[in-house]
Specification:
The chain contains twelve helices and eight strands. It is an alpha/beta fold and 255 residues long. The two termini are 19 Å apart. The structure holds glyceraldehyde-3-phosphate. The site of glyceraldehyde-3-phosphate has 14 residues, from strand 8.
């Protein structure tokens, strides 16, 4: 059965005390609202990961993830954090290829492929983000862009590796803008992504793959988005910083 995931990407927000408080609120509210095939992932800034992970219960469906990592295991890369460090701090997921990393830190397909390799080697789950800009959508090239991002950074993986991935479709024009892809627009791209995965890795693997939607997802639009056949949850930015909004998004799977 395909796993449903609601992941919160806190981005560069919340100091340590604020992060601990929000996480405690989420843990208090979430446990009774979570189903067996559902997982909640919180991706705080690096410096909060260890403290948050220590609050997790062993059998919890809540996990802690990171927002990025370096592609090397260790070395002279001042200021960087490796996947093995994240694992040792209690993270089990890592967001790779977020459009903000691509845009502000010049991360290209080659480095993202290396990051995926490193995350998988360290037995963490990548949440691999792909999505087009507004210019690309207006030019009608969004399917080509998405196919290229997918192929160039992830289709070198073997079946067993690719099976570990969670994908996230995040149209750049919808991130933090209040503009959401319509459920039909999002479903169209999710179905396209699944079809490309199916062509390369086979229908069974494609059918099992969790594909999240991200981009101004909130308690009001989550139900329509998550009810689409190929949308298996969300990667939530702004709305993950408010416990009640985030919980309302999680509850969509129970309604
Ligand atoms: O990683 C999350 C996405 O960038 C979505 O952010 P947003 O919900 O604030 O639009």
């Amino acid at each position: 059965m395909r796993k449903n995931i609601v992941a919160g990407n806190w981005k560069m927000n919340l100091n340590h005390a604020e992060g601990l408080q929000l996480f405690a609120e989420i843990l208090n509210l979430v446990n009774s609202d979570i189903k067996g095939n559902q997982e909640v992932v919180i991706c705080p800034p690096f410096v909060h990961i260890s403290s948050l992970a220590q609050l997790l219960k062993a059998d919890s469906n809540v996990s802690v993830g990171a927002q990025n990592c370096h592609q090397a295991d260790s070395g002279a890369y001042t200021g960087e954090i490796s996947a093995s460090m994240l694992k040792s701090s209690g993270a089990t997921y890592v967001i790779i290829g977020h459009s903000e990393r691509r845009a502000f830190f010049a991360e290209d397909d080659l480095v993202l492929a290396q990051k995926l390799d490193s995350v998988l080697k360290n037995e963490l789950t990548p949440i691999f983000c792909i999505g087009e800009t507004l210019e690309q959508r207006n030019a009608g090239t969004h399917f080509d862009v998405i196919e290229s991002q997918l192929k160039e950074a992830s289709f070198h993986l073997n079946d067993g590796q690719f099976r570990q991935l969670v994908l996230a479709y995040e149209p750049v024009w919808a991130i933090g803008t209040g503009l959401t892809a319509t459920p039909e627009q999002a479903q169209e791209v999710h179905a396209f992504i699944r079809s490309k995965v199916s062509e390369h890795y086979g229908a069974e693997l494609a059918n099992d793959l969790t594909i999240l939607y991200g981009g101004s997802c909130n308690p009001k639009n989550a139900a329509d988005l998550f009810s689409q056949a190929d949308i298996d949850g969300g990667l939530i930015g702004g709305a993950s910083l408010k416990a009640l909004d985030f919980i309302d998004i999680i509850k969509v799977f129970n309604s």
